Amino acid sequence: MRNTDFRIVAFIAALFFKFSCAEKEITDLTKESLIPIPVSVTATGSSFELNENSAIYISGDSEELIGIGEYLADILRPSTGYNLPVNSTSQAPSSGNIYINLEGDEVLLGNEGYDLTITEDLITLSADQPAGLFYAVQTLRQLLPAKVENNGKQEGPWKISTGNIIDYPNYTYRGSMLDVGRHFFGVEDVKRYIDLIAAFKMNVFHLGLTNDQGWRIEIKSWPKLAEIGGSTEVGGGEAGFYTQEDYKEIVQYAAERYITVVPEFDMPGHTNAALASYPELNCDGKARDLYTGIEVGFSTLCTDKEITYEFLDDVIGEIAAITPGPYFHIGGDESHVTPMEDYKPFIARAEEIVHKHGKSVIGWDEIAHAELDPGSIAQVWARAENGKMAVDQGCKLILSPANKTYLDMQYDSTTQLGLHWAAYVEIDSSYIWDPAKLYPGIGKENILGIEAPLWTETITNMEEIEYMVFPRLPGIAEIAWSPASLRDWETYKVRLGKFASRFDNMDINYYASKQIPWVTDSDSLKTSN
Ligand code: NGO
């Protein structure tokens, strides 16, 4: 054989070899790094490849399902550069496509569960309810290469290991709070926050709308709240507030991501911004000065003036009317200057007003001192005994233990942002705990769910938000979603480590804790070569 012939034959053989290897490439779906870890994963050992002709097919023509298909396409289109049209269909599509349907098993999957099946030919997302499909989309994102999250076009291949995932949540309430009272964050930042929590299957966004340092939403019947109370923030910077139109936009954006917004108006304490806006809310009839420090527990509404309850009725009424979710958070924490004999009837009346406007109460654990309706929910942040008191009244709990879930707690003594009054909270200590075993006398049956709050006394912009939230939030999301039996720190930290490239591609400014064996895409190339 001549030399050139030999080279041609060798080239063809190499191509054939490469091609057939790709065909026979062995994958293992059970080895993929998913957060939260799914209930069950089985692998079938080969792979599906997305290509330029792939499309997303929706069974039927429901607007809602088309919305989920478009949400998925919006994530995949920029990085793959593929068109990925979203089409309706009455039957399973042909090879190379993604199929979304509501034929999942109702009993097995419940309201939020999903069944994700990947064969060499097809990716099928099934659920009984649309929320489940949305969570299947989040899992699918994590099964694709990390660069799928990039906003610019990337090189493929876009392969996914084959197999099946059955998954559903452990707790029904899985949330995060953003305090916009201490520092104000605009609608775009809030939307990004919502996107980030949605990616880890959280379903509640608790928006702390008022505090001593700021009142952050327009109330049409009490306009000075936003005008005066919204004018400043911690440190004295110029702040702002949301118009009710802004708020509706946030609520809608969250709803499209299967996230319920819980608005919080903290009362009777943490109300200096309101007390500065309207003198009549103070017992002495004198407006307070605006406050830009970070002390807590010095302010109170005047609990024995009737105008206070007219004020509550107006504020709660206006916001309840534009809040589709079932909850209204009345705060109730750290009312150190409200005597207990005034605090208790105040909370009872606030609860009554919330009910009048068709919502259920959530309040920080101190509200358990008052007589509560069993439908009210106490959010335990500081005192287990308050949680127990609420349970004894028949109430459910949301757990937000400050030394585990507070995202404003510093990681260690070198962290520049944040506070450390509850603890330094490294990634292991925020991950290693089981809600159902945290407090004596409080079991899983008493717990509605878990929430990770971000208080913003020291946080001024999105970059700082992300640094405190990541990477602790995915761990809290896993505690809320995954069964305790599947959670394990040693394997979790390896899974989290593999999110480095994903966080980079999502442009998340995360804290690169030394506890985590971070692996970027370029590291994995190095090890496989
Ligand atoms: C406490 C306090 C907040 C602070 C936060 C700081 C609760 C429920 N009330 O948590 O006002 O911002 O700590 O970590």
Defining key terms:
18% strand, 7-stranded mixed sheet, 35% helix, 8-stranded parallel beta barrel, single chain, alpha/beta, binds ligand NGO, TIM Barrel, elongated, Chitobiase, domain 2
Task: Explain what you see.
Strands 8-9-12-13-14-15-16-17 form an 8-stranded parallel β-barrel, surrounded by 7 helices. Strands 1-7-5-6-4-2-3 form a 7-stranded mixed β-sheet. With 529 residues, it is an alpha/beta fold. It is built from 18 helices and 17 strands. The chain folds into 2 domains: 25-167, Chitobiase/beta-hexosaminidase domain 2-like (Chitobiase, domain 2, 2-Layer Sandwich), CATH 3.30.379.10; 173-488, Alpha-Beta Barrel (TIM Barrel), CATH 3.20.20. The model is unreliable at 17-22 (pLDDT under 50). The structure holds ligand NGO. Ligand NGO is lined by residues 296, 333-334, 364, 381, 406, 408, 419, 455, 457.
Would you kindly provide a brief summary of this structure?
The chain is of the alpha/beta class and 529 residues long. It is built from 18 helices and 17 strands.
% residues in beta strands: 15-25%
Helix content: 25-40%
CATH level 1 class label of the largest domain:
Alpha Beta
Average pLDDT level: 95
Q: Helix and strand layout, with pairings?
A:
Layout: H1 3-24, E1 40-50, E2 56-59, H2 63-80, E3 86-89, E4 97-101, H3 106-109, E5 114-118, E6 122-126, H4 130-143, E7 158-167, E8 173-179, H5 187-198, E9 204-208, E10 210-211, E11 214-215, H6 224-227, H7 244-255, E12 260-267, H8 272-277, H9 306-320, E13 327-331, H10 340-356, E14 360-364, E15 377-380, H11 384-392, E16 396-399, H12 402-405, H13 427-431, E17 447-454, H14 462-469, H15 472-481, H16 489-497, H17 500-505, H18 521-528
Parallel strand pairs: 2-3, 2-4, 4-6, 8-9, 8-17, 9-12, 12-13, 13-14, 14-15, 15-16, 16-17
Antiparallel strand pairs: 1-7, 5-6, 5-7, 10-11
This protein binds ligand NGO.
The site of ligand NGO has 10 residues, from loops.
